[in-house]
Structures are given as C-alpha cells and as structure tokens.
Automatic annotation (TrEMBL):
A matching Pfam family: Lactamase_B
Domain Metallo-beta-lactamase stretches: 64-240
Protein name as it appears in the record: MBL fold metallo-hydrolase
Species annotation: Streptomyces yanii
PANTHER family reported for this sequence: METALLO BETA-LACTAMASE SUPERFAMILY LIPOPROTEIN, METALLO-BETA-LACTAMASE DOMAIN-CONTAINING
Top-level division of the source organism's lineage: Bacteria
Length: 334
C-alpha cells in the first residue's frame, strides 16, 4: 500500500531462516514458509502492510506491530486492536471486505496490543453493529484488578485453555499456566486456517526482541514456546517481526541454547566484584550485583556477535536478552 512517509530505504538484515521472500499482497495468499519482502522498509514508508495469509485470514502491520483478522461469511473476527492503529486496521479490512467486525479477541492485557478496542467498537456502533469482545478469565480478572478504563470483555472464556466458535471457524485459546511474558498471556489458534496468533510470543525472522519480547520471566519462556509448537499451525503472527513458521522456532531454540552457554561461560570467569574493580567510593552492595550483571551480559553478547551480529536488532536487543538469562542462571542454576 502506498504511503506518504519520508523514508530513505536501507539495506535490511538477512533472514534468520533463509526465507523465500515475496512481495506484499492483499490478494495472493502466502505459501508455507514464505515471508514478506522488505518488511522493515515497508513499515517505515507505508501507512501499513497488509498480507493475505490464507483464503480467509489476513496479517496486518503498522509501525512494526501486527494483528490478525479473519473474514467470515457475515463478519470479521479481529485479533488484537492495536493501540493507535485501530483506524488503519479498519481501513485495511475495508480493502478486502465490506463485512463489519463482529468479534474482537484480546490476547493479553497489554495496552499496546489491545488499546484501540474502543476505536473499533465505536466505529461498529455507528453502523449498528455491536461486536463480541472476547478475553480469557485471566485477562478479564487482570483488567478488573488494574481498574482499566478499557472496554471490558462481553464474553469471557475459561483459563488456561478453551475454545469458541466464530461462524464456521473454531478458535482455541491457549494460555500459559506459567507464562513468561505476562501472567495472562495466551495464544489463539485459528483451527481450520492453521494460523497461530501469538502476540509477544516470538519475532519471526529476527532474533528475540528486547527482553525476549518484553518477558517478565525468562525461566518460562522456552517451555511456553514448546507448548505452542505442539499445536497444528502453519503460519504464525507473533505480534512483531515477519510471518512465522516452525523454522523460526528452530532458530529461536538454537539462539537460546547459544545465549545460555555464553552466559554460563562468562559467569565462570567473571567474579562478583569484578565490575567495580578500581572504582573508589563504593558504599552500597547494590553496585556489585548491577555491575557484575552488566559485565557478564555484555561479555556474552560479544561472544555471540560473530554468529548473530548480522541479524535484525542484534546490537539493540541482545544485551537485554543476556541480562534476563544472567538473572535466571544466577537465581535458578540447577
């Protein structure tokens, strides 16, 4: 889609999985394993990116945030009404169908992913449509606990696992009893479409984003990945990054293994007081922990750079991933 942003195209990072890239298309579905070409530049130069994934499922992205929508016979099912992107999502939907949004799914209670629910609800209300607003028990409870001003779910499904139906499509909620990202984090499987909507779970065709997609707890991250890998899907929307496949998960597991090993090696030869050697005036033991963590993490990043340094966002995000692993290894070493 043409946009009016002032952007000078840059050379993009190579694929982490040797992907086959195709031009963005709102009409031609992707074949398994294909990804959208020039995705970073498209995000920087267009109003949004719209890709048809299957006959009925579409992948939308603006400013590197992605959501999924499914076009049924009578209406549209939207997964995650992204903050500050609701109007663009509605415009994208209108490009492919004149059917209204009849249901909205909230994957988890993070404002950046669900913050424009009111925008979509208001737009539908203006034409006399009142969509179902579907969330898990965990998300509904969390919103009540926080006293959110966001619209509350009209339909609450069981936690951690449940299923609902939208026209002929069956959708499975897969929550994580021990969630890495946030305590109400879940993924949704569009069963007949074989599409997994898993916001903030992975960043396909990239190394893991900052803090493994802003995870609150690294300890549970890889077990969460294993859970969703057991599901029957071909395409994944991780909320950021490109359209995903199981090959992206293989890359993630190798990256995690290499990161854990690099951190362990660094911990073996960096002493707890090494970060403050030569520094005078230390009057708090906090200095030992923070400087040691930083030193171990950055040593691990240096060790990983020859293998991963060419990939998307390495210099900006890998140190935060390393810090999470340092803490997990420090606290939970077997």
């Amino acid at each position: 889609m043409a946009g009016n942003r002032d952007h000078v195209w840059v050379r993009e990072a190579p694929s982490t999985v040797d992907a086959e890239y195709v031009q963005e298309s709102a009409t031609v579905p992707l074949r398994p394993g294909q990804k959208i070409a020039h995705l970073f530049n498209l995000n920087e130069s267009q109003e949004y990116v719209l890709q048809r994934v299957t006959e009925r499922t579409y992948w939308f992205q603006r400013d590197h945030y992605a959501c999924t929508f499914y076009v049924g016979e009578d209406g549209v099912l939207l997964f995650d009404p992204l903050h500050e992107r609701g109007q663009y999502i509605l415009e994208a939907i209108k490009r492919v169908t004149d059917r209204p949004v009849k249901a909205i799914v909230l994957s988890h209670d993070h404002y950046d992913h669900i913050g424009d629910a009111d925008v979509v609800l208001r737009a539908m209300g203006e034409i006399g449509v009142h969509p179902r607003l579907i969330a898990s028990e965990a998300t509904a409870r969390k919103q009540l606990f926080r006293g959110t001003s966001q619209p509350h779910a009209t339909e609450v499904v069981a936690w951690p696992h449940s299923r609902f139906q939208f026209e002929d499509l069956h959708v499975e909620f897969h929550g994580f009893a021990r969630a890495a990202h946030t305590d109400d984090h879940s993924a949704q499987l569009l069963v007949e479409e074989k599409v997994l909507h898993a916001a903030d779970h992975t960043n396909p065709d990239e190394p893991p984003f900052w803090k493994f997609s802003a995870n609150e707890n690294f300890l549970y991250f890889e077990p969460n990945l294993r859970e969703t890998e057991e599901l029957d899907w071909v395409y994944e929307n991780g909320g950021h990054g490109n359209v995903g496949s199981h090959a992206d998960r293989d890359f993630y597991h190798q990256y995690i293994a290499d990161m854990v090993e690099a951190v362990r090696r660094a911990m073996d030869h960096i002493g707890f007081r090494d970060g403050v050697k030569g520094v005078e005036g230390i009057n708090s033991h906090t200095a030992y922990h923070t400087t040691w963590t930083d030193l171990v993490a950055r040593t691990a990043v240096d060790a990983l750079r020859p293998k991963y340094g060419q990939y998307y966002g390495f210099e900006y995000g890998t140190w935060s991933n390393a810090e999470q692993v340092v803490w997990a290894q420090f606290a939970y070493t077997k």
